[in-house]
Amino acid sequence: MAERRQVCVGVDLGGTKIQAAALKGNRVLGTARLQTPQSGVLEDVIGAIAESVEGSLQEAGVGQADLQAVGVGTPGEVDVPRGTVSRAANVPGFDGEVPLGSLVSASLDGGVPVRVDNDVRVGVLGEFRAGAGRPFRNLLGIWLGTGVGGGLVLGGKVHDGRGGAGEIGHLVVKPGGRQCSCGRRGCLEAYAGRACMEQRARDKHARGSRTRLFEIMREESKERLTSGVYARALKEKDKLAEELIADAAWALGIAMASAQNLLDVEAIVVGGGLGDRLGRRFLDRAAERMRRHLLNSADPPAALATELGDLSGAVGAALLAKPASRPARPRQEDGRAGSSRTASRAGAARRKT
Ligand SMILES: [Zn+2]
């Protein structure tokens, strides 16, 4: 049983699901997962976040009295010091600027402190401190989901630049190439982000390409081409699915190589819903493409899948939430990024997923 106020809960807020994890130190004691309410009412989403926090505490066998702090990873542009998020278009009810931190805090007993950060950044932080990135001090995380996001750890510290560093999804892999959701052309996200891949699939299907993708989508009762739909289509050797995934691996490999030539990191972790689902084989293809473009091809970075899978965001958010003034764990003593990162950041901390 945890002592008083030693448990931090991290919440990974997405457009379709809310994942929470209750942690003591780096250890996950309990988790909870809910569907994101689709009513379009903000209060419903805040209520579901509070419910997910409660659920993870219950599974951990502790109560809200034991809760020290809550971290929330959200899509959209996050103002970290203010705890607000805007442009989180895929979360129903999140119109305009949402004071997410204060709303979640008010929905919990006793006004527990709540920290908010970008969903990809907390996911990379989770893998860095408690997952596949643990052995390394220089790490690039690339998250493939609806879009493509990234996070950067340099010298043991999360690197934010002026608040917007790590946006590898908009690294150009082909000038004048496919249309990206950002409005520009040829970005990595245009080839390896689920929304852009779906648009490509619809265009090709409308022009006569034969594919089972949309039938599988209906058979699975999905409204979008989810990572699970791709996984099944690949199993059925669907030509269009294979083509889209090959393009995604190609683009990812080029982006990984360009980033590596610039940063010389020890490891690149590929996660996110699509990244996790496509797994090792996809990662190997991307890594193979990467090596062709590496200046130092004799010593490539480790190309790793996530260890925490769909818990990386929730775990990272919990680690982010833990107040820096608490007695440091060994991992913090060796200079790795802790929650102090957020507190020390003075500039505007805005990020887009
Ligand atoms: Zn773009």
Model description:
The protein has 353 residues and is α/β, with parallel strands linked by helices. Helices cover 39% and strands 19% of the residues. Helix 5 packs antiparallel against helix 8. Mean pLDDT is 90; it is low at 325-353. The structure holds zinc ion. Zinc ion binds next to loops.
Write the layout of secondary structure elements.
Elements: E1 7-13, E2 17-24, E3 27-35, H1 42-60, E4 67-74, E5 77-79, E6 84-86, H2 100-106, E7 114-118, H3 119-130, E8 139-144, E9 148-154, E10 157-158, H4 188-192, H5 194-206, H6 213-219, H7 227-235, H8 239-263, E11 267-271, H9 272-292, E12 302-305, H10 312-321, H11 330-333, H12 340-344
Parallel strand pairs: 1-4, 4-7, 8-11, 11-12
Antiparallel strand pairs: 1-2, 2-3, 5-6, 8-9, 9-10
Helix pairs in contact: 3-10, 5-8, 7-9, 8-9
Zinc ion (ZN) binds near residues 180, 182, 184, 187 and 189.
Summarize the structure.
By secondary structure, this protein is of the alpha/beta class. The chain has helices spanning 42-60, 100-106, 119-130, 188-192, 194-206, 213-219, 227-235, 239-263, 272-292, 312-321, 330-333, 340-344, and strands spanning 7-13, 17-24, 27-35, 67-74, 77-79, 84-86, 114-118, 139-144, 148-154, 157-158, 267-271, 302-305. The protein has 12 helices and 12 strands.
